[in-house]
Design goal:
The complex is a heterodimer of chains A (about 290) and B (about 270). Chain A contains nine helices and 13 strands. Chain A is α/β, with parallel strands linked by helices and about 290 residues long. By secondary structure, chain B is mostly helical. Classes of the chains: A alpha/beta (about 290), B mainly alpha (about 270). The structure holds adenosine-5'-diphosphate, magnesium ion and zinc ion. Adenosine-5'-diphosphate (ADP) binds next to strand 2 and helix 1 of chain A.
Chain lengths: ~290, ~270
Protein backbone atom coordinates (compact mmCIF):
# COMPACT_ATOMS: atom_id res chain seq x y z
CA UNK A 1 0.00 0.00 0.00
CA UNK A 2 1.63 3.25 -1.10
CA UNK A 3 0.72 6.55 0.47
CA UNK A 4 2.97 8.40 -1.93
CA UNK A 5 3.15 7.50 -5.60
CA UNK A 6 5.19 9.67 -7.95
CA UNK A 7 5.49 8.54 -11.51
CA UNK A 8 7.66 10.13 -14.19
CA UNK A 9 7.83 13.50 -12.45
CA UNK A 10 9.85 16.25 -14.10
CA UNK A 11 10.31 19.84 -13.06
CA UNK A 12 12.43 22.58 -14.57
CA UNK A 13 13.26 26.04 -13.33
CA UNK A 14 14.20 27.97 -16.44
CA UNK A 15 17.10 26.00 -17.90
CA UNK A 16 17.73 23.99 -14.73
CA UNK A 17 16.23 20.54 -14.83
CA UNK A 18 15.64 20.05 -11.11
CA UNK A 19 13.81 16.73 -11.55
CA UNK A 20 14.02 14.46 -14.54
CA UNK A 21 11.51 11.63 -14.88
CA UNK A 22 11.56 10.51 -11.24
CA UNK A 23 9.58 7.58 -9.82
CA UNK A 24 9.04 7.19 -6.09
CA UNK A 25 6.74 5.16 -3.90
CA UNK A 26 6.49 5.39 -0.15
CA UNK A 27 4.29 3.68 2.40
CA UNK A 28 4.16 3.56 6.20
CA UNK A 29 7.58 3.90 7.81
CA UNK A 30 10.42 6.30 7.07
CA UNK A 31 11.52 6.72 3.46
CA UNK A 32 14.70 8.69 2.89
CA UNK A 33 15.86 10.78 -0.05
CA UNK A 34 19.62 10.78 -0.12
CA UNK A 35 21.65 12.99 -2.40
CA UNK A 36 24.14 15.84 -2.53
CA UNK A 37 23.14 19.50 -2.46
CA UNK A 38 21.33 20.54 -5.62
CA UNK A 39 20.30 16.98 -6.43
CA UNK A 40 16.57 17.78 -6.52
CA UNK A 41 15.49 16.46 -3.11
CA UNK A 42 13.73 19.64 -2.06
CA UNK A 43 11.96 19.91 -5.39
CA UNK A 44 10.65 16.35 -5.03
CA UNK A 45 9.57 16.91 -1.42
CA UNK A 46 7.79 20.14 -2.35
CA UNK A 47 5.84 18.18 -4.94
CA UNK A 48 4.93 15.60 -2.28
CA UNK A 49 3.92 18.43 0.06
CA UNK A 50 1.52 19.77 -2.64
CA UNK A 51 3.41 23.07 -2.69
CA UNK A 52 4.78 22.57 -6.18
CA UNK A 53 3.19 20.98 -9.25
CA UNK A 54 5.46 18.95 -11.55
CA UNK A 55 5.70 19.99 -15.20
CA UNK A 56 5.09 16.38 -16.19
CA UNK A 57 4.22 13.12 -14.45
CA UNK A 58 1.53 11.71 -12.17
CA UNK A 59 1.38 12.17 -8.43
CA UNK A 60 -0.98 10.35 -6.08
CA UNK A 61 -0.91 11.21 -2.38
CA UNK A 62 -3.04 9.38 0.18
CA UNK A 63 -4.94 7.95 -2.77
CA UNK A 64 -5.81 11.36 -4.18
CA UNK A 65 -4.72 13.60 -7.02
CA UNK A 66 -3.10 16.85 -5.84
CA UNK A 67 -3.66 18.57 -9.19
CA UNK A 68 -7.42 18.76 -8.44
CA UNK A 69 -8.26 21.61 -6.03
CA UNK A 70 -10.80 19.68 -3.93
CA UNK A 71 -8.60 16.59 -3.61
CA UNK A 72 -5.59 18.75 -2.87
CA UNK A 73 -7.37 20.26 0.12
CA UNK A 74 -8.27 16.77 1.34
CA UNK A 75 -4.59 15.78 1.10
CA UNK A 76 -3.48 18.90 2.96
CA UNK A 77 -5.83 18.08 5.80
CA UNK A 78 -3.77 14.96 6.48
CA UNK A 79 -0.33 16.34 5.67
CA UNK A 80 2.48 17.70 7.84
CA UNK A 81 5.37 19.56 6.21
CA UNK A 82 8.68 20.80 7.55
CA UNK A 83 10.25 22.83 4.73
CA UNK A 84 13.99 23.21 4.34
CA UNK A 85 15.09 26.44 6.08
CA UNK A 86 11.63 26.77 7.60
CA UNK A 87 11.15 30.34 8.79
CA UNK A 88 9.05 31.58 11.67
CA UNK A 89 7.27 34.69 12.74
CA UNK A 90 10.00 35.50 15.17
CA UNK A 91 7.90 37.84 17.26
CA UNK A 92 5.43 35.06 18.06
CA UNK A 93 5.97 32.82 21.04
CA UNK A 94 6.38 29.10 20.43
CA UNK A 95 2.80 28.51 21.47
CA UNK A 96 1.43 31.38 19.37
CA UNK A 97 3.32 30.24 16.31
CA UNK A 98 2.20 26.61 16.49
CA UNK A 99 -1.29 27.88 17.22
CA UNK A 100 -1.06 30.02 14.07
CA UNK A 101 -0.21 26.98 11.95
CA UNK A 102 -3.03 25.07 13.65
CA UNK A 103 -5.42 27.79 12.46
CA UNK A 104 -4.08 27.37 8.93
CA UNK A 105 -4.76 23.66 9.39
CA UNK A 106 -8.36 24.65 9.99
CA UNK A 107 -8.62 23.75 13.64
CA UNK A 108 -11.22 26.34 14.40
CA UNK A 109 -12.44 25.41 17.85
CA UNK A 110 -10.11 27.24 20.21
CA UNK A 111 -10.06 24.87 23.14
CA UNK A 112 -9.49 21.76 21.03
CA UNK A 113 -6.87 23.59 19.02
CA UNK A 114 -4.96 24.64 22.12
CA UNK A 115 -5.08 21.07 23.40
CA UNK A 116 -3.57 19.90 20.14
CA UNK A 117 -0.87 22.58 20.32
CA UNK A 118 -0.01 21.43 23.85
CA UNK A 119 0.16 17.84 22.63
CA UNK A 120 2.74 18.54 19.91
CA UNK A 121 4.66 20.86 22.23
CA UNK A 122 5.00 17.96 24.69
CA UNK A 123 5.79 15.50 21.91
CA UNK A 124 8.79 17.56 20.81
CA UNK A 125 9.95 18.43 24.32
CA UNK A 126 9.20 22.14 24.03
CA UNK A 127 7.15 22.57 27.22
CA UNK A 128 9.76 24.65 29.00
CA UNK A 129 10.06 27.21 26.18
CA UNK A 130 6.42 27.27 25.07
CA UNK A 131 5.94 30.87 26.24
CA UNK A 132 9.26 32.11 24.88
CA UNK A 133 9.54 34.19 21.74
CA UNK A 134 10.93 32.23 18.80
CA UNK A 135 13.68 34.76 18.20
CA UNK A 136 15.08 33.90 21.64
CA UNK A 137 15.44 30.18 20.85
CA UNK A 138 18.54 28.29 19.76
CA UNK A 139 18.68 26.77 16.28
CA UNK A 140 18.02 23.27 17.60
CA UNK A 141 14.96 24.42 19.53
CA UNK A 142 13.62 26.22 16.46
CA UNK A 143 13.97 23.03 14.48
CA UNK A 144 11.83 21.34 17.11
CA UNK A 145 9.22 24.04 16.65
CA UNK A 146 9.28 23.20 12.95
CA UNK A 147 8.75 19.53 13.70
CA UNK A 148 6.02 20.32 16.23
CA UNK A 149 3.95 22.27 13.70
CA UNK A 150 4.35 19.44 11.19
CA UNK A 151 2.93 16.98 13.74
CA UNK A 152 -0.26 19.02 14.28
CA UNK A 153 -3.40 17.02 13.67
CA UNK A 154 -1.56 13.70 13.65
CA UNK A 155 -0.97 13.71 9.86
CA UNK A 156 -0.97 10.48 7.88
CA UNK A 157 1.83 11.83 5.69
CA UNK A 158 4.80 13.68 7.11
CA UNK A 159 7.26 15.43 4.77
CA UNK A 160 10.54 16.51 6.38
CA UNK A 161 13.17 18.35 4.34
CA UNK A 162 16.64 17.95 5.88
CA UNK A 163 15.28 17.81 9.42
CA UNK A 164 18.65 17.12 11.04
CA UNK A 165 20.95 19.49 9.17
CA UNK A 166 22.87 21.84 11.44
CA UNK A 167 22.04 20.00 14.66
CA UNK A 168 24.72 18.99 17.12
CA UNK A 169 25.20 15.24 17.69
CA UNK A 170 22.99 15.05 20.76
CA UNK A 171 20.11 16.97 19.19
CA UNK A 172 20.54 14.86 16.09
CA UNK A 173 19.97 11.73 18.16
CA UNK A 174 16.90 13.25 19.82
CA UNK A 175 15.55 14.14 16.39
CA UNK A 176 16.15 10.66 15.05
CA UNK A 177 14.23 9.33 17.99
CA UNK A 178 11.28 11.66 17.31
CA UNK A 179 11.28 10.92 13.59
CA UNK A 180 11.46 7.17 14.03
CA UNK A 181 8.63 7.42 16.54
CA UNK A 182 6.64 9.46 14.01
CA UNK A 183 7.24 6.77 11.41
CA UNK A 184 5.34 4.20 13.41
CA UNK A 185 2.04 3.79 11.62
CA UNK A 186 2.39 6.78 9.31
CA UNK A 187 4.30 7.63 6.18
CA UNK A 188 7.35 9.82 6.66
CA UNK A 189 9.35 11.03 3.68
CA UNK A 190 12.52 12.86 4.62
CA UNK A 191 15.65 14.07 2.90
CA UNK A 192 19.23 14.19 4.03
CA UNK A 193 22.62 14.52 2.49
CA UNK A 194 24.09 12.44 5.31
CA UNK A 195 24.20 8.68 5.08
CA UNK A 196 24.17 8.27 8.89
CA UNK A 197 20.64 9.65 9.21
CA UNK A 198 19.39 7.46 6.42
CA UNK A 199 21.07 4.32 7.78
CA UNK A 200 19.67 5.00 11.23
CA UNK A 201 16.11 5.80 10.25
CA UNK A 202 14.93 4.63 6.88
CA UNK A 203 13.40 1.38 5.79
CA UNK A 204 13.49 2.54 2.18
CA UNK A 205 15.72 4.97 0.36
CA UNK A 206 15.94 6.75 -2.93
CA UNK A 207 19.28 8.14 -4.01
CA UNK A 208 18.70 11.32 -5.99
CA UNK A 209 21.44 12.75 -8.14
CA UNK A 210 21.22 15.45 -10.80
CA UNK A 211 17.46 15.30 -10.78
CA UNK A 212 17.24 11.55 -11.24
CA UNK A 213 16.50 8.66 -8.91
CA UNK A 214 19.67 6.60 -9.24
CA UNK A 215 18.54 3.92 -6.80
CA UNK A 216 15.40 2.98 -4.93
CA UNK A 217 15.18 0.11 -2.48
CA UNK A 218 16.14 -0.85 1.04
CA UNK A 219 19.36 0.27 2.74
CA UNK A 220 20.58 -3.35 2.67
CA UNK A 221 20.05 -3.53 -1.08
CA UNK A 222 21.98 -0.32 -1.58
CA UNK A 223 24.83 -1.56 0.61
CA UNK A 224 24.88 -4.86 -1.29
CA UNK A 225 25.64 -2.96 -4.51
CA UNK A 226 29.08 -2.25 -3.13
CA UNK A 227 29.82 -5.88 -2.32
CA UNK A 228 33.24 -6.86 -3.72
CA UNK A 229 34.17 -3.24 -4.37
CA UNK A 230 35.71 -2.26 -1.06
CA UNK A 231 39.16 -3.41 0.01
CA UNK A 232 41.94 -2.49 2.36
CA UNK A 233 45.52 -1.95 1.43
CA UNK A 234 48.62 -0.43 2.92
CA UNK A 235 48.39 2.36 0.37
CA UNK A 236 45.96 4.38 -1.67
CA UNK A 237 45.12 2.19 -4.65
CA UNK A 238 45.21 3.92 -8.05
CA UNK A 239 42.18 1.84 -9.07
CA UNK A 240 40.08 3.34 -6.29
CA UNK A 241 37.33 5.83 -6.92
CA UNK A 242 37.80 7.01 -3.35
CA UNK A 243 40.28 6.00 -0.70
CA UNK A 244 40.96 7.21 2.78
CA UNK A 245 43.18 6.28 5.70
CA UNK A 246 41.26 4.76 8.56
CA UNK A 247 42.08 5.05 12.23
CA UNK A 248 43.96 1.75 12.12
CA UNK A 249 46.36 3.12 9.54
CA UNK A 250 45.25 1.04 6.56
CA UNK A 251 43.67 2.55 3.47
CA UNK A 252 40.06 1.84 2.74
CA UNK A 253 39.63 1.77 -1.04
CA UNK A 254 36.33 1.93 -2.87
CA UNK A 255 36.11 1.19 -6.57
CA UNK A 256 37.14 -1.69 -8.84
CA UNK A 257 39.57 -3.80 -6.83
CA UNK A 258 42.77 -5.20 -8.40
CA UNK A 259 43.22 -8.99 -8.44
CA UNK A 260 44.01 -10.44 -5.05
CA UNK A 261 42.76 -7.38 -3.13
CA UNK A 262 41.76 -7.89 0.50
CA UNK A 263 37.97 -7.37 0.22
CA UNK A 264 35.99 -6.17 3.23
CA UNK A 265 32.23 -5.81 3.85
CA UNK A 266 30.85 -2.58 2.40
CA UNK A 267 28.80 0.07 4.19
CA UNK A 268 25.92 2.12 2.87
CA UNK A 269 28.28 5.06 2.54
CA UNK A 270 30.57 3.04 0.22
CA UNK A 271 27.63 2.18 -2.00
CA UNK A 272 26.48 5.81 -2.03
CA UNK A 273 29.97 6.94 -3.00
CA UNK A 274 30.05 4.47 -5.86
CA UNK A 275 26.65 5.59 -7.07
CA UNK A 276 27.67 9.24 -6.97
CA UNK A 277 31.12 8.66 -8.44
CA UNK A 278 30.35 6.55 -11.46
CA UNK A 279 28.71 9.02 -13.85
CA UNK A 280 31.68 11.40 -13.59
CA UNK A 281 34.02 8.51 -14.25
CA UNK A 282 32.14 7.55 -17.38
CA UNK A 283 32.22 11.14 -18.54
CA UNK A 284 35.98 11.46 -18.02
CA UNK A 285 36.66 8.24 -19.92
CA UNK A 286 34.64 9.13 -22.98
CA UNK B 1 -5.68 17.73 63.38
CA UNK B 2 -8.25 20.26 64.42
CA UNK B 3 -11.05 19.66 66.85
CA UNK B 4 -13.96 20.74 64.66
CA UNK B 5 -14.96 19.68 61.17
CA UNK B 6 -17.10 21.17 58.45
CA UNK B 7 -20.67 19.99 58.64
CA UNK B 8 -21.99 18.07 55.60
CA UNK B 9 -24.17 20.97 54.46
CA UNK B 10 -21.22 23.37 54.46
CA UNK B 11 -19.18 20.83 52.49
CA UNK B 12 -21.94 20.45 49.93
CA UNK B 13 -22.34 24.21 49.49
CA UNK B 14 -18.61 24.75 49.17
CA UNK B 15 -18.15 21.92 46.71
CA UNK B 16 -20.87 23.31 44.46
CA UNK B 17 -19.45 26.80 44.62
CA UNK B 18 -22.62 28.03 46.36
CA UNK B 19 -21.19 28.93 49.76
CA UNK B 20 -21.46 32.57 50.87
CA UNK B 21 -18.05 34.32 50.89
CA UNK B 22 -17.56 34.14 54.67
CA UNK B 23 -18.25 30.43 54.80
CA UNK B 24 -16.17 29.80 51.70
CA UNK B 25 -13.16 31.54 53.22
CA UNK B 26 -13.24 29.66 56.48
CA UNK B 27 -14.03 26.35 54.74
CA UNK B 28 -11.07 26.88 52.48
CA UNK B 29 -8.77 27.60 55.42
CA UNK B 30 -9.98 24.47 57.15
CA UNK B 31 -9.68 22.28 54.07
CA UNK B 32 -6.03 23.22 53.73
CA UNK B 33 -5.33 21.61 57.08
CA UNK B 34 -7.82 18.77 57.26
CA UNK B 35 -7.51 15.64 55.15
CA UNK B 36 -10.73 14.15 56.51
CA UNK B 37 -12.87 17.03 55.23
CA UNK B 38 -10.98 17.06 51.92
CA UNK B 39 -12.00 13.43 51.48
CA UNK B 40 -15.53 14.38 52.39
CA UNK B 41 -15.62 17.12 49.78
CA UNK B 42 -14.46 15.02 46.85
CA UNK B 43 -17.72 13.08 46.86
CA UNK B 44 -19.63 16.29 46.17
CA UNK B 45 -17.44 17.79 43.52
CA UNK B 46 -18.73 17.73 39.99
CA UNK B 47 -15.74 16.27 38.14
CA UNK B 48 -16.81 17.79 34.87
CA UNK B 49 -16.79 21.22 36.43
CA UNK B 50 -13.34 20.63 37.90
CA UNK B 51 -12.12 19.40 34.56
CA UNK B 52 -13.48 22.48 32.85
CA UNK B 53 -11.89 24.79 35.41
CA UNK B 54 -8.60 22.96 35.10
CA UNK B 55 -8.69 23.26 31.32
CA UNK B 56 -9.39 26.95 31.60
CA UNK B 57 -6.50 27.40 34.02
CA UNK B 58 -4.12 25.40 31.84
CA UNK B 59 -5.17 27.41 28.84
CA UNK B 60 -4.61 30.71 30.64
CA UNK B 61 -1.20 29.62 31.83
CA UNK B 62 0.38 28.48 28.59
CA UNK B 63 -1.72 30.06 25.90
CA UNK B 64 0.04 33.38 26.39
CA UNK B 65 -1.69 36.74 26.40
CA UNK B 66 -2.28 37.98 22.88
CA UNK B 67 -0.31 40.86 21.44
CA UNK B 68 -2.16 44.20 21.49
CA UNK B 69 -3.13 44.28 17.81
CA UNK B 70 -4.70 40.87 18.25
CA UNK B 71 -6.51 41.93 21.40
CA UNK B 72 -7.79 45.04 19.66
CA UNK B 73 -9.08 43.03 16.69
CA UNK B 74 -10.85 40.58 18.98
CA UNK B 75 -12.43 43.50 20.82
CA UNK B 76 -13.63 44.84 17.46
CA UNK B 77 -15.44 41.56 16.92
CA UNK B 78 -12.91 39.78 14.72
CA UNK B 79 -12.64 36.06 15.47
CA UNK B 80 -9.56 35.13 17.50
CA UNK B 81 -8.31 32.79 14.76
CA UNK B 82 -8.69 35.49 12.10
CA UNK B 83 -6.94 37.97 14.41
CA UNK B 84 -3.95 35.63 14.62
CA UNK B 85 -3.83 35.37 10.80
CA UNK B 86 -3.93 39.16 10.52
CA UNK B 87 -1.16 39.52 13.10
CA UNK B 88 1.10 37.39 10.90
CA UNK B 89 0.72 39.68 7.86
CA UNK B 90 4.18 41.02 6.94
CA UNK B 91 2.87 44.42 5.81
CA UNK B 92 1.49 45.22 9.21
CA UNK B 93 4.95 45.42 10.66
CA UNK B 94 6.39 48.86 11.31
CA UNK B 95 8.95 49.28 8.53
CA UNK B 96 6.53 48.65 5.70
CA UNK B 97 3.86 50.94 7.03
CA UNK B 98 6.48 53.63 7.58
CA UNK B 99 7.63 53.24 3.97
CA UNK B 100 4.08 53.65 2.65
CA UNK B 101 3.41 56.61 4.91
CA UNK B 102 6.76 58.16 3.98
CA UNK B 103 6.20 58.06 0.23
CA UNK B 104 2.70 59.52 0.55
CA UNK B 105 3.82 62.23 2.95
CA UNK B 106 6.47 63.19 0.43
CA UNK B 107 3.92 63.33 -2.39
CA UNK B 108 1.55 65.44 -0.29
CA UNK B 109 4.37 67.76 0.73
CA UNK B 110 5.53 68.23 -2.86
CA UNK B 111 1.96 69.04 -3.88
CA UNK B 112 2.18 72.19 -1.76
CA UNK B 113 4.53 73.71 -4.29
CA UNK B 114 3.24 72.75 -7.65
CA UNK B 115 -0.12 71.96 -9.19
CA UNK B 116 1.41 69.11 -11.15
CA UNK B 117 2.61 67.41 -7.98
CA UNK B 118 -0.92 67.61 -6.70
CA UNK B 119 -1.97 65.54 -9.64
CA UNK B 120 0.92 63.18 -9.12
CA UNK B 121 -0.38 62.54 -5.64
CA UNK B 122 -3.47 60.99 -7.17
CA UNK B 123 -1.31 58.81 -9.35
CA UNK B 124 0.75 57.65 -6.38
CA UNK B 125 -2.02 57.30 -3.78
CA UNK B 126 -3.45 53.91 -4.88
CA UNK B 127 0.06 52.48 -5.07
CA UNK B 128 0.42 52.61 -1.27
CA UNK B 129 -2.36 50.15 -0.46
CA UNK B 130 -1.47 48.05 -3.52
CA UNK B 131 2.16 47.78 -2.42
CA UNK B 132 0.89 46.74 1.00
CA UNK B 133 -1.07 43.87 -0.52
CA UNK B 134 1.97 42.76 -2.52
CA UNK B 135 4.18 42.87 0.57
CA UNK B 136 1.65 40.75 2.45
CA UNK B 137 2.30 37.90 0.04
CA UNK B 138 5.90 38.45 -1.04
CA UNK B 139 7.60 35.09 -0.57
CA UNK B 140 10.77 36.46 0.93
CA UNK B 141 8.86 38.41 3.56
CA UNK B 142 6.50 35.75 4.82
CA UNK B 143 8.86 33.31 6.50
CA UNK B 144 6.19 30.63 6.83
CA UNK B 145 4.88 30.81 3.29
CA UNK B 146 5.77 27.20 2.48
CA UNK B 147 4.05 25.91 5.59
CA UNK B 148 0.99 27.98 4.73
CA UNK B 149 0.90 26.69 1.17
CA UNK B 150 0.85 23.07 2.39
CA UNK B 151 -2.01 23.78 4.81
CA UNK B 152 -5.66 23.25 3.89
CA UNK B 153 -6.73 26.81 4.73
CA UNK B 154 -8.50 28.42 1.76
CA UNK B 155 -6.09 30.53 -0.24
CA UNK B 156 -8.83 32.95 -1.27
CA UNK B 157 -9.89 33.46 2.33
CA UNK B 158 -6.37 34.17 3.45
CA UNK B 159 -5.97 36.55 0.52
CA UNK B 160 -9.14 38.44 1.44
CA UNK B 161 -8.35 38.56 5.16
CA UNK B 162 -4.88 39.95 4.60
CA UNK B 163 -6.01 42.37 1.90
CA UNK B 164 -8.76 43.70 4.16
CA UNK B 165 -6.25 44.11 6.98
CA UNK B 166 -3.79 45.92 4.75
CA UNK B 167 -6.49 48.25 3.37
CA UNK B 168 -7.81 48.96 6.85
CA UNK B 169 -4.41 50.28 7.81
CA UNK B 170 -3.10 51.86 4.60
CA UNK B 171 -6.24 53.63 3.39
CA UNK B 172 -6.40 55.87 6.49
CA UNK B 173 -2.74 56.72 5.97
CA UNK B 174 -3.46 57.83 2.41
CA UNK B 175 -6.53 59.71 3.61
CA UNK B 176 -4.49 61.66 6.14
CA UNK B 177 -1.91 62.45 3.48
CA UNK B 178 -4.76 63.59 1.21
CA UNK B 179 -6.04 65.97 3.87
CA UNK B 180 -2.65 67.64 3.88
CA UNK B 181 -3.11 68.62 0.24
CA UNK B 182 -3.52 72.34 -0.43
CA UNK B 183 -7.09 73.48 -0.79
CA UNK B 184 -10.02 71.31 0.14
CA UNK B 185 -11.21 70.00 -3.15
CA UNK B 186 -12.62 66.70 -4.34
CA UNK B 187 -9.16 65.58 -5.44
CA UNK B 188 -8.37 64.62 -1.86
CA UNK B 189 -10.77 61.67 -2.11
CA UNK B 190 -10.59 60.92 -5.83
CA UNK B 191 -8.11 58.08 -5.32
CA UNK B 192 -10.50 55.94 -3.26
CA UNK B 193 -12.53 54.24 -5.96
CA UNK B 194 -9.52 53.71 -8.24
CA UNK B 195 -7.79 52.06 -5.28
CA UNK B 196 -10.77 49.78 -4.72
CA UNK B 197 -11.00 48.91 -8.41
CA UNK B 198 -7.28 48.27 -8.77
CA UNK B 199 -7.24 46.07 -5.66
CA UNK B 200 -10.18 43.99 -6.86
CA UNK B 201 -8.61 43.63 -10.29
CA UNK B 202 -5.38 42.44 -8.67
CA UNK B 203 -7.26 39.95 -6.48
CA UNK B 204 -9.08 38.54 -9.49
CA UNK B 205 -5.76 38.16 -11.30
CA UNK B 206 -4.44 35.87 -8.54
CA UNK B 207 -6.32 33.04 -10.23
CA UNK B 208 -3.58 33.22 -12.87
CA UNK B 209 -0.51 34.77 -11.25
CA UNK B 210 0.80 35.31 -7.72
CA UNK B 211 -0.37 38.35 -5.73
CA UNK B 212 2.97 40.09 -6.21
CA UNK B 213 2.84 39.74 -9.99
CA UNK B 214 -0.88 40.63 -10.06
CA UNK B 215 -0.27 43.82 -8.11
CA UNK B 216 2.74 44.58 -10.30
CA UNK B 217 0.70 44.27 -13.50
CA UNK B 218 -2.19 46.33 -12.17
CA UNK B 219 0.01 49.04 -10.66
CA UNK B 220 2.12 49.30 -13.78
CA UNK B 221 -0.95 49.69 -16.01
CA UNK B 222 -2.33 52.35 -13.70
CA UNK B 223 0.87 54.38 -13.73
CA UNK B 224 1.36 53.99 -17.48
CA UNK B 225 -2.15 55.32 -18.15
CA UNK B 226 -2.53 58.01 -15.51
CA UNK B 227 0.96 59.50 -15.28
CA UNK B 228 1.07 60.74 -18.91
CA UNK B 229 -2.56 61.84 -18.68
CA UNK B 230 -1.81 63.84 -15.56
CA UNK B 231 1.33 65.37 -17.04
CA UNK B 232 -0.64 66.41 -20.12
CA UNK B 233 -3.09 68.17 -17.82
CA UNK B 234 -6.03 65.84 -18.49
CA UNK B 235 -6.17 64.22 -15.08
CA UNK B 236 -9.96 64.45 -15.03
CA UNK B 237 -9.90 61.68 -17.64
CA UNK B 238 -8.30 59.34 -15.11
CA UNK B 239 -10.08 60.36 -11.94
CA UNK B 240 -13.10 62.36 -13.11
CA UNK B 241 -16.71 61.28 -12.76
CA UNK B 242 -16.62 58.88 -15.70
CA UNK B 243 -13.44 57.26 -14.43
CA UNK B 244 -14.91 56.96 -10.94
CA UNK B 245 -17.87 55.04 -12.29
CA UNK B 246 -15.50 52.86 -14.28
CA UNK B 247 -13.50 51.96 -11.17
CA UNK B 248 -16.65 51.31 -9.21
CA UNK B 249 -17.71 48.88 -11.93
CA UNK B 250 -14.31 47.19 -11.88
CA UNK B 251 -14.49 46.81 -8.10
CA UNK B 252 -17.95 45.30 -8.21
CA UNK B 253 -17.15 43.10 -11.20
CA UNK B 254 -13.94 41.81 -9.63
CA UNK B 255 -15.63 40.97 -6.33
CA UNK B 256 -18.54 39.26 -8.06
CA UNK B 257 -16.19 37.20 -10.17
CA UNK B 258 -14.24 36.13 -7.08
CA UNK B 259 -17.47 35.27 -5.27
CA UNK B 260 -18.79 33.18 -8.14
CA UNK B 261 -15.58 31.29 -8.88
CA UNK B 262 -14.43 30.84 -5.28
CA UNK B 263 -14.89 27.07 -5.27
CA UNK B 264 -13.54 26.32 -8.71
CA UNK B 265 -10.51 28.57 -9.04
CA UNK B 266 -7.15 27.93 -7.39
CA UNK B 267 -5.73 31.11 -5.96
CA UNK B 268 -2.01 31.36 -6.54
CA UNK B 269 -0.68 32.52 -3.21
CA UNK B 270 2.79 31.31 -4.04
CA UNK B 271 4.88 31.09 -7.14
CA UNK B 272 4.67 27.36 -7.11
CA UNK B 273 1.29 26.08 -5.96
N1 LIG C 1 12.63 27.92 -7.11
C1 LIG C 1 13.72 27.62 -7.85
N2 LIG C 1 14.12 28.45 -8.83
C2 LIG C 1 15.20 28.16 -9.59
N3 LIG C 1 15.95 27.08 -9.45
C3 LIG C 1 15.61 26.20 -8.49
C4 LIG C 1 14.48 26.43 -7.63
N4 LIG C 1 14.39 25.39 -6.78
C5 LIG C 1 15.41 24.56 -7.08
N5 LIG C 1 16.14 25.04 -8.10
C6 LIG C 1 17.31 24.36 -8.71
O1 LIG C 1 16.97 23.02 -8.91
C7 LIG C 1 18.05 22.17 -8.55
C8 LIG C 1 17.61 21.20 -7.45
O2 LIG C 1 17.43 21.92 -6.26
P1 LIG C 1 16.85 21.29 -4.93
O3 LIG C 1 15.62 20.55 -5.25
O4 LIG C 1 16.74 22.40 -3.95
O5 LIG C 1 18.00 20.27 -4.53
P2 LIG C 1 18.39 19.68 -3.10
O6 LIG C 1 17.27 19.88 -2.17
O7 LIG C 1 18.69 18.24 -3.36
O8 LIG C 1 19.62 20.41 -2.64
C9 LIG C 1 19.20 23.07 -8.13
O9 LIG C 1 20.04 23.24 -9.23
C10 LIG C 1 18.51 24.36 -7.78
O10 LIG C 1 19.36 25.44 -8.02
MG1 LIG D 1 17.22 20.77 -0.36
ZN1 LIG E 1 -12.20 18.72 59.13
Amino acid sequence: MSTVRVHGASKSFGRTKALDNVDLEAGPGVTGLLGPNGAGKTTLLRIIATVLAPDRGQVTLLGRDPSRPDERTAIRERLGYLPQDAGFHRGFTVFEFIDYVAILKQMTERRARHDEVRRVVALTGLESVSAKRIRALSGGMRRRVGLAQAMLGDPALLVLDEPTVGLDPEQRLRFREMISHAGEGRTVVMSSHQTEDITALCSRIAVIHQGQARFTGTPAELTAQAAGRVWTDTQRSPAALAAWRTGEGAYRNVGDPPAGAELIPPTLEDAYLLLMGEPELEVSHS
Amino acid sequence: MTAWHLDPEAIRLYAQGAAPPQLAASAEAHLMKCAACRDGISAHVDTRRVEAIWQEVADRVDAPRRSWPERMLVRLGVGEATARLVAATPTLRGPWLLAVAGVLALAAWAAQFDERFLQMFLVVAPLGPLAGVAVAFAGGLDPTREIGLAAPYSGLRLLLIRTAAVLAVTVPIVAVAGLALPGSNWLAAAWLLPTAGLTCAALALTARVTPVVAVGVVAMSWVLVTAPTALAGHLHLAVGIGAQLFWLAVAIGGSLWLAITRHTVTIKLGRSA
